C-alpha cells in the first residue's frame, strides 16, 4: 500500500497560514515543502483505531499566496503523484481586500453511475479549474454544507468492503456500522476520483455535517434518539460517525490556535506517542458529544476582511428532551447570538438545513411540530411524531422557537440594532436536493436578507419527490398549509419571504461573489463529466 492513503487536503487557511490534512498507511513524519518559496513544515502522525493522520500547519505565507507544494513522508515524495494530469497543488491563502469567492454545495453520492446520480458537479468544477484559460475565476473557499458521505445509503463498492470484514446480514444491515466502515466511506468519497482529490488538495475547504453523514433524520426528535439508543449496534455507529467526522472534517475547519487549545486533539496526539492509539479517547469524546450536546461545539466562525462566515451545526447540537425541543442547545444558541452582529459588509450564515423553505413546506413542518407537541391531544401527538419521522419534517421550521429567535436576531442586524448593518445577510444551505433563492421582505431592514440553497452536488430528486417539491414551491400552495398551522395555534412567522429564483433540480454548485458591498451568486450544473453550464444567477445587493 502507498504511504499516502488519503489527501493531501488543503483545509483551514487565513491570510498567512494554511493547513494540510493527510491520512497515511503507517506512523511517520509528514512534511509539506516548497523549496522555491522557502516552505518546510512538518508534523508527526497520530493514530486512531489503527489509522494514521497528520495536520501540517504552515505559517508565514504572504496574503493571496499561490505556492506549489510537495508532500514528503519520512523524506520520500508522495505528492504530487507521478505522471498526474493535474497541475501542481497549491497553498492558497486569503486576501479579502481583493474580494472573496465562496463556492458551496451539499449532498454528494460517490461512487456511482451517471444513470444513478448524474454527473458530479464537484468533479466537473475541478476540471473547469484545471482547464483554466482567460477569465477562469478560482474560489477562495469551498464550503461543503452536509452529506459529504452517505452512511445509510451504500454503494456497491462499500457493500463489498463490508462483506470482506463482517457479516452483512447483521444489523445495521446495508449501513455503516463503526469507525472502520467510516474510514472506507471517506476514502471512496475523496480518493477514487482524481479530479476531486486534486481539487481538495488545492482549494481551501470547510465543512459541516448533515444527517446522512450519520443516519437519515439524525436527531429529528427525542423519540428518534430514544429509539436509536435502544439498538445494541447504535453506540458503535454513533461513536464511529462522530469520531470520524472529528478527524476527517472538523479538525480541518479549526484554526491552528483552536486546534492547539483543543484538549481532545492534545490527548490523542499524546496517546499516539511511542506507538499508542487514541481510539478510546475519540470514542469517549464522540459518545459524550452525542449524549451531552453542550459539551462540544461543532459550529465555527471566521472573519475574512469585510465578510463574516458563521457555520452552524444544526444536527449534533440539537436540544432534544421529553420537555424541550430546540435546533440548538442553549449554549450553542448563545454562541450564535454573539456571532449575529453588524459591522461587516456581508454576514453569511451557513446551515446544512435551509432556514427559509418554500412557504408550504415551512407551514407544514411548523404545524407538525405543534401537533407532535400535543396541540391536538395525545393521539394527535403520536400521529404527529410518526408523520415527522416518515416525511423528514425536521428543518428549522419544525423547531419554531429556534426559527423565531434566529429570525429576530437577523432582523435586528439588518435594522442596524447590532452595529452598522451589513449590505447583505445570506443563509447558505443544502439538504433538500434542489436549488433556489428566497428574499426576505423587510421594509425596515437596511440589509438584503436572502436564503441561498444549492443542492445536490450529486444526488438529484427523481419522480414523485421532484413533483411534490415543485408543487410545494409554488406560491399558491402556501395558503392552505398556513391555515393548517393556524389551526394548531402556530403563531405567524416573524418575517416574510418570497421565492425569486429557481427551483432547479439539477446537480449543481453555487458560487457567492463578494466585492466591497456587492454580493452576487451563480449556480452551475454539469453539462458533462468535465464541463459546467450556468443554471442561474442573481444580484443579492441592489
TrEMBL record:
Q: Per its UniProt record, what InterPro entries does this chain match?
A: DUF7800, Metallo-depent_PP-like, PhoD-like_MPP, PhoD-like_sf
EC category name? hydrolase
Does the keyword section mention Hydrolase?
A: yes
Query: What Gene3D superfamilies does its record include?
Result: PhoD-like phosphatase
Q: Which UniProt keywords apply?
A: Hydrolase
**Molecular function (GO) terms listed?**
alkaline phosphatase activity
Enzyme Commission code(s) on record: 3.1.3.1
What residues does the PhoD-like phosphatase metallophosphatase domain cover?
138-223
From which domain of life does this come?
Answer: Bacteria
All copies of domain DUF7800, residue ranges: 1-90
Q: Would the keyword Hydrolase turn up in this protein's UniProt record?
A: yes
Transmembrane intervals: none
Name recorded for this polypeptide: Alkaline phosphatase D family protein
Instruction: Identify the species of origin.
Output: Actinomadura fibrosa
Amino acid at each position: 500500500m502507498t504511504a499516502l492513503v488519503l489527501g493531501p487536503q488543503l483545509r483551514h487557511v487565513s491570510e498567512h497560514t494554511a493547513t494540510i490534512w493527510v491520512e497515511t498507511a503507517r506512523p511517520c513524519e509528514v512534511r509539506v515543502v516548497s523549496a522555491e518559496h522557502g516552505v518546510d513544515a512538518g508534523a508527526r502522525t497520530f493514530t486512531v483505531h489503527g489509522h494514521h493522520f497528520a495536520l501540517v500547519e504552515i505559517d508565514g505565507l504572504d496574503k493571496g499566496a499561490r505556492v506549489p507544494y510537495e508532500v514528503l513522508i519520512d523524506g520520500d515524495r508522495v505528492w504530487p503523484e507521478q505522471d498526474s494530469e493535474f497541475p501542481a497543488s497549491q497553498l492558497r491563502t486569503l486576501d479579502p481586500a481583493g474580494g472573496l469567492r465562496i463556492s458551496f454545495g451539499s449532498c454528494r453520492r460517490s461512487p456511482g453511475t451517471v444513470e444513478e446520480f448524474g454527473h458530479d458537479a464537484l468533479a466537473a468544477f475541478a476540471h473547469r479549474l484545471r482547464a483554466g484559460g482567460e477569465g477562469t475565476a478560482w474560489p477562495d473557499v469551498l464550503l461543503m454544507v452536509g452529506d459529504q458521505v452517505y452512511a445509510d445509503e451504500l454503494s456497491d463498492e462499500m457493500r463489498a468492503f463490508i462483506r470482506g470484514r463482517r457479516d452483512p446480514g447483521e444489523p445495521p444491515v446495508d449501513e455503516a456500522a463503526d469507525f472502520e466502515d467510516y474510514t472506507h466511506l471517506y476514502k471512496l468519497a475523496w480518493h477514487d476520483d482524481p479530479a476531486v482529490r486534486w481539487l481538495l488538495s488545492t482549494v481551501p475547504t470547510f465543512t459541516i455535517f448533515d444527517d446522512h453523514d450519520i443516519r437519515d433524520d439524525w436527531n429529528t426528535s427525542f423519540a428518534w434518539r430514544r429509539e436509536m439508543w435502544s439498538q445494541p449496534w447504535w453506540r458503535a455507529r454513533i461513536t464511529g460517525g462522530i469520531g470520524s467526522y472529528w478527524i476527517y472534517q472538523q479538525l480541518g475547519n479549526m484554526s491552528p490556535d483552536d486546534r492547539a487549545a483543543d484538549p481532545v486533539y492534545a490527548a490523542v496526539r499524546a496517546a499516539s506517542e511511542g506507538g499508542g492509539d487514541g481510539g478510546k479517547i475519540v470514542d469517549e469524546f464522540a459518545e459524550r458529544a452525542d449524549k451531552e450536546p453542550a459539551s462540544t461545539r461543532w459550529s465555527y466562525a471566521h472573519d475574512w476582511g469585510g465578510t463574516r462566515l458563521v457555520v452552524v451545526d444544526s444536527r449534533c447540537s440539537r436540544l432534544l428532551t421529553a420537555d424541550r425541543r430546540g435546533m440548538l442547545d442553549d449554549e450553542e444558541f448563545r454562541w450564535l447570538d454573539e456571532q449575529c452582529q453588524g459591522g461587516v459588509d456581508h454576514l453569511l450564515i451557513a446551515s446544512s438545513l435551509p432556514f427559509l423553505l418554500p412557504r408550504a413546506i415551512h407551514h407544514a413542518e411548523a404545524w407538525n411540530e405543534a401537533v407532535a407537541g400535543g396541540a391536538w391531544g395525545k393521539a394527535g401527538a403520536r400521529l404527529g411524531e410518526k408523520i415527522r419521522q416518515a416525511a423528514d419534517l425536521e428543518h428549522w421550521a419544525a423547531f419554531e422557537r429556534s426559527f423565531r429567535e434566529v429570525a429576530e436576531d437577523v432582523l435586528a442586524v439588518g435594522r442596524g440594532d447590532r452595529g452598522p448593518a451589513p449590505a447583505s445577510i445570506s443563509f447558505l444551505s443544502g439538504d433538500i436536493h434542489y436549488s433556489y433563492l428566497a428574499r426576505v421582505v423587510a421594509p425596515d431592514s437596511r440589509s438584503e436578507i436572502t436564503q441561498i440553497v444549492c443542492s445536490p452536488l450529486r444526488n438529484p430528486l427523481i419522480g414523485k419527490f421532484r413533483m411534490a417539491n415543485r408543487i410545494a414551491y409554488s406560491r399558491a400552495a402556501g395558503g392552505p398549509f398556513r391555515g393548517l398551522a393556524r389551526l394548531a395555534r402556530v403563531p405567524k412567522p416573524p418575517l416574510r419571504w418570497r421565492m425569486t429564483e429557481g427551483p432547479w433540480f439539477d446537480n449543481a454548485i453555487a458560487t457567492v461573489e463578494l466585492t466591497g458591498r456587492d454580493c452576487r451568486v451563480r449556480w452551475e450544473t454539469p453539462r458533462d463529466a468535465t464541463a459546467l453550464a450556468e443554471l442561474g444567477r442573481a444580484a443579492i445587493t441592489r
